[in-house]
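Take a record.
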Amino acid sequence: QVKLQESGPGLVKPSQTLSLTCTVSGASIAWNDYSWSWLRQPPGKGLEWIGSIGYSGSTYYSPPLKSRTSIARDTSKKQFTLQVSSVTPEYTAVYYCARGTVYDYWGQGTQVTVSS
């Protein structure tokens, strides 16, 4: 069974960089066969796609977030990462990692609060 687990700091100060890691385990299908995505849900709002990294390593970002977002992967560790620079309190949300573009597997989510 495929499992995803997010990890990273739960508190980030404004203007700093938010960094999260998603570790994938239990995959019975080659890691490289899928794209991998990050999403977030701010308090009281709906789920928002942040970006994805494709099986070839190509990256795709939500246009409003593109300028400050970076997604990368380490296939040897079965991990992919999210970095968002110069965050503001509006980036407070539960952040999720998920497989593919239909999100058939999800992590449990991790709360990130941006506050001084």
About this structure: The mean pLDDT is 93. The radius of gyration is 13 Å. The CA atoms of residues 57 and 73 lie 8 Å apart. The chain has no helices and ten strands.
